[in-house]
Amino acid sequence: MRPSKRTETSSLEELRKATTSCLRYGNHFVETENLTKYHSLVYALCCDSDRPRAEELYKWLRKTLLEYVKEIFQELTNSESYIAFKTSRKHRKENYSGKQLTENYTNSQEVSNSSSTSFELETDNFVQLKKYTVLWESFCAGLQAATFIFSYLERSWITERKKGGILETRGVYDIYTLGVLTWKDHLFRYLRDWIIRNTLSYIFYLRQKKLDVLVVQTVVRSLLSMGCVEAIAQEEDSEEEDLALSIYRTKFEKAFLDETSRYYHKLGTDLKASYSEREFLQQVEICLNEEQHLSEQFCHPSSIALLRNRCEDALIVKHLDVFYSLSDMYLRDSQEEELKLVYRLLSRVPGALKPVQDSLKSILIDWGCRSLSPFKERTESNMMPTSPLLSGKQEIGEENKEQLSSLEKSMMEYDAYAEREAESFVNAAWSIYIHSRKLVEAAFMNDEGFVLALEQGCNKFFNSVSCAPHLLARFCHKMLERPEGDSDFTEEERENRLVKVTRLFRLLEEKDLFQRLYSVKLARRLIYGTSASTDAEEAMLARLRETCGQDYVSQLQRMFTDCQTSREEVISFRSSPYGGIPLGFEFSVMVLTAGSWPIDPSTSKNSCKEYSMSYSDIHSLPRMFSKAVEAFSEYYSEKYEGRRLMWLHSLSKVDLRANLWSHKPNSKSWCELQVSLPQALVLLKYNERITNTFSELREATGLETEEVKLSLKILIGCGVLRVSPNDYELIVDSSKSNGMDDIVVSLNDEFSPRKRKMKLANLLEPEINKENSDVESSRRKMEEDRRLQIQACLVRIMKRYRRANLSFLIGETISLLSHRFKAAVSDIKQNLESLIEKDYIVKVDDATETFEYVA
Predict the structure, then answer these.
(1) CB-based contacts of 304: which residues, under 8 Å, 6+ apart?
(2) Which among 50, 387, 790, 799 has the fewest CB atoms less than 10 Å away?
(3) 731 and 709 in contact (C-beta within 8 Å)?
(4) Where is the Cullin family profile domain (predicted)?
(5) Vertex 598, ends 595 and 602: CA angle to 5°?
(6) What is the DSSP letter of 604?
């Protein structure tokens, strides 16, 4: 049965009231039973068998929504807030854009900020803005209720129209989209300047914690919702996200960002004028954090980064001079907490930390150079002080028994000075490095740029000391050498020293020079058995290997291998028929591989020799020694065919047991003297008689005059032998070699040894001469090795690239050799010319300095 016209009219009126009620008050004002009843009415109208009313119902609904939105529009435009806004626009006769609006708003705020009633003047605007948000939220909730009421219309007629194509669906939307579009086109379109202006004003006081953020959140949600439905209406699927944010970005975001920039530019200036520099930094951080927290509550995520950049530009970039002056002061005073604050703020701005990193590097270089300035005056030839006794210019006292203590005291003073010199240098460099390292870790969060600045600064001041490789090698030697007495390091102390050495070694540019010096000192420790611990030696090698690779320590590793092999060889020799020959003393040998040790057997003087010997033939030795040498040589030749032994007698040590002073009171019954082979040959002559002339000693030992003088100088200086004061002056004077044959050298029966074991071999010559010889020899060999390494590196580069220009070759060569030394540009060019002369490389273009490899 068809419903009457009157019934139909009443049904539509009932639907209108329900829809309007939902739109104004939200869906919670309509009971569920009524919603079901209204849904049934819509169903009945759409399914009328005589005349379906779906299309008419949709048009009626669109009209109803429009009437309600216009009603809201009139309600808002009749408010005093909007009337005042409109009057102001007419009075100025300007067509405000969003930017103009916010500029004028800011100017008015600058005036009203000084007034205590500025907030009250905006109260009506905020009331109307809040009313707008309440109406919007109710409208959206009502649309949801209307969607349920008209759900059949949406599922049937609207869906069918959408299937019909673009012409059929033009102007036809789902209920929610239709409502939001109506709001946008007939309300927001005309009130947007007023809404945005009030919203920006609201945010201004929101930053001062005077208002609730919920209002702004609702305004932003409304802009995003209108943008979304507009994107749906235009059916721009490929750019849906950008289109959905178009209203938010064009109507709110740009004006909001501009207003924020002006607000914080002024605030930054005010803070700088009102607070001290340190307090200014604290206030900047507080403002940035508060703005970040506030913006995250209402801004779209895409706006957060833009807003942060605007705030940082206003509060940080504009005041970088303050940040840099403070950072320089904080770095010099090592104020950790203040530097943390500077880092947190400047790390927000790309590139802003670079001047601070440069400042850190320059301060480190200045501090380091000042701290290490005493060591810069040292050269490789005057690193140690000289003593009269060590130089052979000491005077002989009346009592020879005081000579031993004087010589020992001089050597102890030297050892203590040498140790203090190296210790002071390492500790000074380490204190700067570790202090700066802790500062970088704590204040700059181990930032990569600051770590690099730290390494560059420390590298610069550490390598400004030309003798740094020498001092570091000496420090390692003292650390790894077995000390006299019970003053050895604990494992923890040695580990801490290893850490120091490793860190400072990484800063060293002349790693190849350090390697040579270290190998010389390692050879001494291994040959003379003075290493404190094999584990410590291996730990040091492991750290060097970790830093520079296996090639760097391969030679050092072979030295340890030789020591182990030598011990096994001696055991094998003693168990062989050759080792059963009665010698009358214990005989031990070390077999060293030529090329693995820093020893040049072709010369009588080398970096490991404390003494030069003229014995080139083992048969020139005394029979008691030559017999042992011959036996081992025959054993070795039989076991290893084709190998040749070259005996280095200058490195030999002899332990002699002396019983000459056992009759003296308070003296040891016997004394063991550790002497060199030349010293042993001299002392053994006194088994025949206690008085010998210089010529008799020279003929009996077969030594050169200078070698006899050196042995006598030490033995007389220690009080084992004695001569007249005038004769001693001739012996210690290296410039005099004539008139010495008749000097009488007697065994000193007044000598009273105070220790069971005396090491006279260590007093052969002043240690400074050995140190200087090591450095000079190592540097000469190093320069030759560097020349060969640079040439080899250039050849490898050219073989790989075939053609390259000069700048590329220089950069690649420096990079490839950086783990061993810092190649100088002049050296690279010089060696490049050498390769051209040798026809390895040819220059193909003078203008571009291009070179080509010749196969």
Answers:
(1) 292, 295, 296
(2) 50
(3) yes
(4) 467-716
(5) 70
(6) S
* pLDDT confidence bin for 360, thresholds 50/70/90: very high
Identify whether the C-beta of residue 685 lies closer than 8 Å to the C-beta of residue 697. Answer: yes
pLDDT of residue 167: 42
If phi > 0 it is left, if psi is from -120 to 50 it is alpha, else beta; for residue 739 that is left
Q: Which of 189-198, 431-440, 520-529 has the lowest mean pLDDT?
A: 520-529
Question: To which residue do tokens 């060199």 refer?
Answer: 676
Burial track 395-411 (b if 16+ CB lie within 10 A, e otherwise) = ebeeebeebbebbbebb
Neighbour order of strands in the sheet with 757-759? 653-658, 671-676, 757-759
Q: Is the pLDDT of residue 261 over 70?
A: yes
Confidence of residue 678 (pLDDT cuts 50, 70, 90): confident
Answer positive or negative: Cα dihedral of 216, 219, 222, 227: negative
Token couple for 175:
């209920």
pLDDT in tens, 775-808: 566 667 778 888 888 888 999 998 888 888 888 9
Question: Which residues share a beta bridge with 674?
Answer: 655, 759
Residue 20 corresponds to which tokens in the numbers above? Answer: 């309007």
Q: What's the CA gap between 32 and 40, in Å, rounded?
A: 13
**pLDDT for position 99:** 44
Distance CA 128, CA 136 (A): 12
Q: What is the mean pLDDT of residues 110-130?
A: 64
The neighbour count for residue 537, using CB atoms within 10 Å, is 19
Q: How far apart are CA 576 and CA 647, in angstroms?
A: 21
Interacting residues of 297 by C-beta distance below 8 A, sequence separation 6+: 213, 217
Q: pLDDT band for position 413 (50/70/90)?
A: low
Mean pLDDT of 679-706: 85
Residue 383 — φ and ψ, nearest 5°? -75, -25
Q: Are the CB atoms for 482 and 392 separated by under 8 Å?
A: no
Report yes or no: 295 and 142 within 8 Å, Cβ to Cβ. no
Count CB-CB contacts under 10 A for residue 535.
10
Q: What is the CA radius of gyration of the chain?
A: 48
| Number of residues in the chain | 855
761: confidence class by pLDDT, cuts 50, 70, 90: low
Question: Strand locations in 240-360, DSSP E?
Answer: none
- Using the Cα atoms of residue 729, residue 731, residue 736 and residue 742 in order, give the sign of their dihedral: positive
Cα-Cα end-to-end distance for the chain: 107
Q: Are 589 and 569 in contact (CB under 8 A)?
A: yes
Helix, strand, coil % in the chain, rounded to nearest 5:
70, 5, 25
Give the pLDDT mean for 749-763: 72
Angle made by CA atoms 622, 627, 629, in degrees to the nearest 5: 95
Q: List the one residue out of 738, 650, 749, 649 whose CA is nearest residue 695.
A: 738
Residue 113 corresponds to which tokens in the numbers above? 């900020």
815 HSE (CA, 13 A, CB side): 7
| Nearest residue to 774 via CA among 614, 598, 559 | 598
Query: What is the pLDDT, as a whole number, of residue 38?
Result: 75
Is pLDDT of 816 > 70? Answer: yes
Q: Give bridge partners of residue 676 from the DSSP assignment.
A: 653
Query: Which among 687, 729, 679 has a CA at the least distance from the CA of 707?
Result: 679
Residue 517, pLDDT > 70, answer yes
Question: Which of 63-77, 118-132, 697-711, 731-745 has the lowest average pLDDT?
Answer: 731-745
Burial class of residue 250 (count of CB atoms within 10 Å of its CB; 0-12, 13-18, 19+)? middle
465: left (phi > 0), else alpha (psi -120 to 50), else beta? beta
pTM of the model: 0.75
Distance CA 287, CA 209 (A): 12
What letter would DSSP give residue 481? B
Contact 393, 486 (CB under 8 A): no
Amino acid sitting at position 805? N
Cα(701)–Cα(692) distance, rounded to whole angstroms? 12
